[in-house]
Every structure is written in C-alpha cells, then in structure tokens.
Write a structure and sequence with these properties.
The complex is a heterotrimer. By secondary structure, chain A is mainly alpha-helical. Chain A has one domain: 3 helical TM bundles of succinate and fumarate reductases (Up-down Bundle). Helices cover 74% and strands 0% of the residues of chain A. The longest helix of chain A has 33 residues. By secondary structure, chain B is α+β, with helices and mostly antiparallel strands. Chain B has two domains: 101 residues, Beta-grasp domain (Ubiquitin-like (UB roll)); 135 residues, Fumarate Reductase Iron-sulfur Protein, Chain B, domain 2 (Orthogonal Bundle). Chain B contains nine helices and seven strands. In chain B, helix 2 runs parallel beside helix 6 and helix 6 crosses helix 9. The N and C termini of chain B lie far apart (74 Å). The relative contact order of chain B is 0.12. Chain C has a domain of 48 residues. In chain C, a hairpin with a 2-residue loop joins strand 1 and strand 2. By secondary structure, chain C is mainly alpha-helical. In chain C, helix 1 packs antiparallel against helix 2. Classes of the chains: A mainly alpha, B alpha+beta, C mainly alpha. At the A-C interface, helix 1, helix 2 and helix 3 of A face helix 1, helix 2, helix 3 and helix 4 of C. Iron/sulfur cluster binds next to helix 4 and helix 6 of chain B.
Chain lengths: 111, 249, 134
C-alpha cells in the first residue's frame, strides 16, 4: 500500500485529465464566452448552461483544468528561481484548485 | 599558400590552480573531414599536452566523448568542424555535472543513479537452466528495444534543466533504462523498481521539457519512457486504492 | 567500481534562473507552461460569469458588457492564442506518451497527433453547433 501516500500520482493524474479537457475544450469556449458573447458574434444563449447535462459538463470543463493549471504552475515557478517558496506554493496551487472545485460545484448547482 | 585555420575555445580547469573554469583559445589547421574530437586530439598531440578530455571509440559507440559544442551537448566524435567553420568553436565540459579537470566531468552521480533503478532482469523465481531460455517474440522485443540502445553518454543529463536545478533527480537515461527493464516480457521486477521510480526524485520531478530526447544520439527517447512510467505509476496508484491487496499484480 | 573523485577538488556549475532564455526550445517550453496561467484566469472569469447567470439574466448581461472593455478583449485574444498553443503541444506530447502497437507495428507519431488534432476540430465545431441550436 506504499503507493497510497504517493500523492504525486493523484496530482499528476488530475493534471493529465485536466490537460486533455483543456486541450479539447478550452479554445472553443474562449471563442464563445470570452470573444463571441461580448462582441455579439452570435446570439448569446446562456440559458443552455442551465440544462442539467450541460451543468455536469461545465463542472468537468472548469474543475479538471484547474488542477492541470495548479500542477503546472507549481512545477514551473520553482524552475525559474522560486524554489524557496515551493512549499507555500504547493498549498496555494493545490489548495486553490480544491477550493475552485467546490466553488464550481456550488456555482453550477445554483445556476 | 596559407593554410586554412579554425579557432577552438576550450574550457580549462586545473584544480588547485584555477578557481573556476576559463576558456583557452587554440588556432589550428582546419580539415573539413575532421570532427571536434580530431581537433582536440590535434591540440593534445601538437599544441598543448596538458589538455584533458575523455574519448575512446571515435565512432559514436562508447559514449565517452560527450561535451558542449557551442552550447549544445554533442558527441565530439560525431560533430564535424565543417558545421561550424569558419566560425570559432567553443568546447566546454557537459553542463550540470561537476567538473574534474578541463573537459572531464565527474560521472559518479550518474553511475549511482543507473544502478539505483536495478537495471537487470529480475525474476520472482529463476527457472532451472535445464528448462531452457526465456523466449521472447519480435513484438515483445519491439516494446522496449529503442530504450535499450543507450550508450551512457550523459548528453541527455546535460540537456535537462530539471537535473541542472535538482541534482537528486534520477534523470533521463536511468529512467529510460528502468522503463526498458519494466517493459521486458522476461522481467518481473517492476514493483521492486517502483520505489525509486515513483519517488519525487524519480519520474515526478520531470516536467517533460523533452530536450533529452532531442539531443540523444541513439534516439533512445527518454522523455517518452519517463511519461510512460508516470502513466504506469498513476495506474498502479489507482489500483492500490481500489484493490485491498494493493493491486500488486 | 565507481570512481569517486575528491569532492573538494571539483568545480560545481551553477544554473542561473534565466536558463530558459538561453535556448529557443527552453523558451518554447516555458511558453507552454505559462499557457496554464492564462487558462486558469479564463476559467475563473468564466466561472464568475456563470455565477452572475445564477443570480439573474440581467446580472449576467452586465458582466458580459464589462468584458467588452479593450483590456478584457485583449486578454481573451491572448488567452485564445495560449490555449491553442496548449492544445497543439498537448496533442504532440500525447503522441509521444501513447504507444499504439499492433504486433511489431507501432502507430507513427504524426498519425496519433493528427488524429488528436482532427478530433479537437470536430469537437470544437460540435460545441459551436450545440451552443447555437440548444
Ligand atoms: S539516453 Fe541517449 S543521450 Fe542519454 S545517456 Fe543514453 S544515449 Fe546518451
Ligand atoms: S569517442 Fe566513443 S562515442 Fe565518441
């Protein structure tokens, strides 16, 4: 059971899953919500976000890539000279993505 | 007719004499069929006998002549002067390693790491010789063959910023070697290697910069090996959560 | 036998924090890692817009109106470029990690990467269509 204490496997697994989700889904969503909606490229129909299957989808779309980003930032900043803050950075990144996940659950549930 | 020449800026470090490495310039005849190692040999034979460096086979097989050539890790027996001529060529010891003298680096750390991954066939129980050899199909060989071609030249360590920043990182060649044995159909030692491989200094320190695979003269592709080890570690971790016995199948 | 030289006589090189500026490939690696910062910020902004939508349609409309500012538009354009860079590098990396074998044949990496990129385009168009028809 020694692997159980190996949290790195968990973080890396979430990093990878989030990386896949981000790679496939994030660009089109930036086009839709970050550019299309404010610029009026197409009729903005945010009510689709309230459909239940879509809410589940939104949870996956947001929560998993948060872990991906947290893991990357945590591993990259120490590589550019910030090794001393490695410990607090871990708390900040992984803690932040855990909090972000809970917030996402709450937001999509109360849509 | 004046002879064509080329300038080599070569790192000198004489322990006890230099406090840090310095570059020394040598201008020598240029021959377009010479490699950097030939130029160093010319310097050693005709110009400056005190220059120290390692080499042996002169054909890209022994892995002892790795150095930084104009900032890139190269086998100097395979790097032709004509790729750089007429510009000067800078030859330095492999980066990320402690320097012993001139172009010679200390490789004891690398040797320890190679050993730490138990790079040999491990059997739960050896079968008696009378039962014959362990057979392997071409498809089974194909799975790991690429990872078995390493010549221990350490170019990948010189290319790896993670190793430069974190000297405890086991590093590309040793992890590729671990993967080579893990993937060998005759081997049963994966779980024994996991302790080292799944540690922070094992695969998890790697951020997949990928330069190890770019510089490898034998196309071993350590970067691929390390990512596959990560996948395997993650799978085994999930299994250990789901199965009561730790899923050590 | 491993030869262990006297450590006191060795010169230990030091890696500067700017190592990633010294080589193009290192720089591209750093760019790839920093896609995560832009993706994270985008996700948080998107999450806030959903939170506003949960409050009321008017609150959502006001939030989207705020995204019309040049600063936010510039951010989203840059974030889009970074996100695309993440996608492309991720698919190329996936092709390195995945080893699809059939006997002695291994699927070439360009094929695996190409299949991912094709799938990505199909998925993107599908989301676009679903968003407009639903
Ligand atoms: S993996 Fe390649 S670069 Fe690294 S030591 Fe082996 S042959 Fe050299
Ligand atoms: S001298 Fe043997 S590899 Fe270069």
């Amino acid at each position: 059971m020694r692997n159980i204490k190996n949290f790195e496997a968990l973080w890396w697994g979430l990093f990878s899953a989030g990386g896949v989700v981000a790679a496939f889904l994030v660009p089109i969503h930036i086009i839709l919500s970050g550019l299309g909606a404010p610029l009026g490229w197409l009729e903005d129909s945010p009510q689709v976000y309230q459909l239940w299957p879509v809410r589940l989808y939104l949870f996956v779309l947001i929560a998993l890539p948060l872990f991906h980003c947290a893991h990357r930032i945590y591993h990259t900043l120490p590589e550019i000279g910030l090794k001393v803050i490695s410990k607090p950075l871990a708390v900040l990144c992984y803690g932040g993505s855990l909090v972000g996940t809970l917030v996402t659950v709450w937001v999509v549930a109360s849509l | 007719m004046s002879e064509e020449t080329i300038t080599l800026n070569v790192t000198r470090f004489r322990p006890g004499q230099d406090s840090e490495p310095v570059l020394q310039s040598y201008t020598i005849p240029y021959r377009k069929d010479w490699v950097v190692l030939d130029a160093l040999n010319h310097i050693k034979d005709w110009v400056d006998q005190t220059l120290s460096y390692r080499w042996s086979c002169r054909m890209g097989v022994c892995g002892s002549c790795g150095m930084m050539v104009n900032g890139e890790p190269k086998l100097t027996c395979s790097a032709f002067l004509r790729e750089y001529y007429p510009n000067p060529v800078t030859v330095e010891p492999l980066v990320n390693f402690p320097v012993m003298r001139d172009l010679v680096v200390d490789m004891s750390d690398f040797m320890d790491k190679l050993k730490s991954v138990k790079p040999w066939l491990i059997r739960e129980e050896e079968k008696p010789v009378s039962e014959g050899e362990y057979l392997q199909s071409p498809a089974q060989l194909g799975v790991y063959k690429q990872f078995s071609l390493c010549i221990n030249c350490m170019l990948c360590y010189a290319a790896c910023p993670v190793y430069g920043l974190e000297p405890d990182f086991i590093g590309p060649a040793a992890l590729a070697l671990a993967h080579r044995y893990n993937e060998d159909s005759r081997d049963q030692g994966k779980e024994q290697r996991r302790e080292v491989i799944a540690s922070n200094e094992g695969t998890w320190d790697c951020t997949f910069v990928g330069e190890c695979s770019v510089v490898c003269p034998k196309h071993v592709d350590p970067a691929a090996a390390i990512q596959r080890l990560k996948v395997d570690n993650t799978k085994s971790w999930i299994k250990s959560l789901l199965l009561p016995k730790g899923g050590r199948a | 036998m491993i030869n262990r030289p006297d450590k006191a006589k060795l010169y230990y090189p030091h890696m500067p924090a700017t190592w990633w500026l010294r080589k193009r490939s290192y720089f591209m690696f750093m760019l790839r890692e920093f896609t995560s910062v832009f993706i994270a910020i985008y996700l948080v902004v998107f999450l806030i817009s959903l939170y506003r939508l949960g409050q009321s349609e008017a609150a959502y409309a006001a939030f989207v109106d705020g995204l019309r500012s040049p600063g936010w538009l510039a951010f989203h354009w840059v974030a889009l470029l970074f996100a695309i860079y993440h996608s492309v590098t991720w698919f190329l990396s996936s092709a390195v990690v995945l080893s699809l074998r059939l006997g002695t044949w291994e699927a070439p990496r360009w094929l695996v990467a190409g299949a991912h990129i094709g799938g990505w385009l199909v998925v993107s168009v599908a989301i676009l269509i679903l968003y407009t028809v639903l």
